[in-house]
TrEMBL record:
Record localization: Cell membrane
Species per Swiss-Prot/TrEMBL record: Devosia equisanguinis
Family indicated by similarity: Belongs to the CPA3 antiporters (TC 2.A.63) subunit F family.
Record GO terms (molecular function): sodium:proton antiporter activity
The keyword Thylakoid appears for this protein: no
Name by which UniProt lists this protein: Na(+)/H(+) antiporter subunit F1
Top-level taxon of origin: Bacteria
Residues spanning the membrane: 6-26, 38-57, 63-87
Record's bilayer topology term: Multi-pass membrane protein
UniProt keyword list: Antiport, Cell membrane, Ion transport, Membrane, Transmembrane, Transmembrane helix, Transport
Keyword Transmembrane helix: yes
Length: 93
């Protein structure tokens, strides 16, 4: 694979992921309900995770992959806690 093709495909992927981040941020701020905002937060951490992975591929550094794994774990736990809070009104039983 040519390095130019890899460079431009990663650039295009990061550009589209940036647009996706802006769209999810808009939904988080302007969401009509709390459920929409939590769903947008969930989508935002997935897009941020993908952005870190593409950045790790571009720079050939392992640190970005570890950060992406950490964001994935914390994002999942945060989404579950927020969903539980919306359903029951408390997080810890």
């Amino acid at each position: 694979m040519s390095t130019a093709i890899l460079f431009w495909s990663l650039f295009a992927a990061q550009f589209m992921l940036g647009i996706a981040m802006l769209a999810t941020l808009y939904r988080m701020v302007m969401g009509p309900r709390a459920q929409d905002r939590i769903l947008a937060l969930d989508a935002l951490y997935v897009v941020a995770l993908l952005m870190l992975i593409t950045l790790g591929i571009r720079t050939n550094s392992q640190v970005y992959f570890e950060l992406a794994m950490l964001i994935g774990l914390l994002g999942f736990v945060g989404t579950v806690a927020l969903a539980k809070f919306l359903m029951r009104g408390e997080v810890i039983e």
